Structures are given as structure tokens and as C-alpha cells.
């Protein structure tokens, strides 16, 4: 019995260590494609939805394949965060984009991220 229990614990430890910081999500295919013919450390860019992200080719966590890692962490743009400085969640806000002021609401978004202005017309399924 002790042998079986010890074996189960030994098998579970690598999985527990891999998910210690929470489950990792596989990078989008565009991140792999952007570095398909590159070397580690090369500059890269990829298009996700309607945004182009600049980054650097680095090894993926779960393989030796290179992926394009964005220069700045994913999350709201700096202008959206600035628009909610000194405001509370649920307050009205506006952020400039392409010469237009876009009305929105200050919210923390996913995983209690930074307070940022989310446009009123924002859709998660886009």
C-alpha cells in the first residue's frame, strides 16, 4: 500500500509543479507562426484579432518551439488604465482611439486586473 501511495505522489508532483502558478494556456497559433523561421531573441510581430503585437521569439513553456512573446504584457492599453486613474469601478470614463473619444466604464476585467476603461460597445466574443 505504501508503495502504491508513494508512486501516486511521485507521479503527481511534476503536474503540481507545472500548475503551481495556475494552468498555462497554449499560445495562439499566430505566436508560433511568427517565429517559425526565426532564432531565439529575434524580433517578431503577430496579428491577434484586429491588433498587431510586437515581441521577441522565445521558447514556449511546454516545448522547444519558439513563440512570439509580446514586448508588453497582455492587458488593457496604458491609455485605458490612465482614463480610470482616480476613479472607482463602475464610474463612467472615456478613452481616445484613432482620434475619437470612446465612452466606457471603469472595470477590473479578468482576474481582478488593473482598473481600466472598457468601451461600452466592447464584446468578449469578438
Question: Mind explaining what this structure looks like?
Answer:
The chain has 126 residues and is α+β, with helices and mostly antiparallel strands. The protein has two domains: 25-72, no CATH class; 78-119, no CATH class. The protein is built from three helices and six strands, in the order H-H-E-E-E-H-E-E-E. A three-stranded antiparallel sheet has the order 1-2-3. The protein starts with a helix and ends in a 7-residue tail after the last strand. The relative contact order is 0.11.
Keywords, please?
single chain; 126 residues; alpha+beta; 2 domains; three-stranded antiparallel β-sheet; 3 helices; 6 strands; 30% strand; disordered N terminus
**Count of helical stretches:** 3
Biggest sheet overview: 3 strands, antiparallel
Please count the beta strands (DSSP E, at least 2 residues each).
Answer: 6
Taking all Cα atoms into account, the compactness measure Rg is: 20 Å
Give the class from helix and strand content and strand pairing.
Answer: alpha+beta
Write down the overall geometry: elongated
Residues in β-strands, percent: 25-35%
- Strand arrangement in the largest pleated sheet: 1-2-3
Mean pLDDT: 77
Bin the helical content.
10-25%
